[in-house]
Amino acid sequence: MSDYKAFNVVLADKVAHVVINRPDKVNAMNADFWCEIIEIFRWADDTDEVRAVVISGAGKHFSSGIDLMMLASLGSQMGPDVGRNAEKLRRKILDLQASFNAVDNCRKPVLAAVQGYCLGGAIDLISACDMRYSTVDAQFAIREIDIGMTADVGTLQRLPRIIGDGMMRELAFTGRTIEGEEAQRIGLVNRTYADADALLEGVMGIAREIASKSPVAIRGTKQMIRYMRDHSVNDGLEYIATWNAAMLQSADLRVAMTAHMSKQKPEFAD
Question: Active-site residue among 104, 144, 210, 220?
Fold first, then answer.
């Protein structure tokens, strides 16, 4: 594994555990974070041995969001020309969006394990994940409104599909904090756990279960779900018919059926 400044990455049991590793800075997302997460998820996508990804935060908190020092440095780069400033800012925003697009576009399921703070940019991150889990006392907030800006890295685009339009608007307009139990009630997280240890144990267990399934079937399922966000039911049915015309010829189907009939655990190739 490569050495990262903002992350620690471990691969075990076909699950890549990606840990935001800046606990002394409340796992704030600095420049290294935004660059390295693209590299990490490109590696996860390209590495056949990786069948699922868990992303968590080191220490007491998942992440406090974008590093404010990074925002301040962007402000210091502005010049007198409004047009050039706008172009520079737009390109920077698109670069930041690409970081979480890498998470969303990863062919492998991505599970977020959240404890403590999950604020601002951290909401953008977990919105790009497939599933989210938290401790009961985790704290979630779309904080951009409180620093006078509009969230611009994916929350407003992805979160309505997760918690519904009305609830997203309430959280985005008010910036109010919700804890784990309410987050589960509105569908932001799938399940809550008593503490960080139970959270990580539970989420890693789910990830290992996913990793035990046919990787071809898992990747196909994620692709179909993502496709349906932007297409009609008829488009989706047409796409899965074409997809499975090829994928049903995979050896995984025979392996799964044989194992089921013999009441044994299937072993799939990467």
Answer: 144
If you ran DSSP here, which 8-state letter would residue 63 be given? B
Say whether 66 is catalytic: yes
- The mean pLDDT of the chain is 95
pLDDT of residue 15: 98
Query: Minimal CA–CA distance to 126: which of 154, 160, 167, 98?
Result: 154
Q: Please pick, among 121, 154, 180, 220, the residue that the annotation labels catalytic.
A: 121
The runs of H, that is alpha helices, within the chain are: 31-46, 68-76, 82-105, 121-127, 155-158, 160-163, 165-174, 180-185, 196-211, 215-228, 233-247, 251-262
124 is catalytic: yes
Active-site pick, 36, 67, 124, 252: 124
Does residue 157 surpass a pLDDT of 90?
yes
CA 78 remoteness from chain centre: 31
Residue of 161, 18, 51, 41 lying closest to 105 (CA atoms): 41
pLDDT score for 73: 83
Active site residue 121: yes
Which residues fall within 8 angstroms of residue 224, CB to CB, at 6 or more apart? 236, 239, 240, 243
Does 18 have pLDDT greater than 80?
Answer: yes
The single residue of 20, 37, 55, 66 carrying the catalytic annotation is 66
**Model confidence at 2: pLDDT above 80:** no
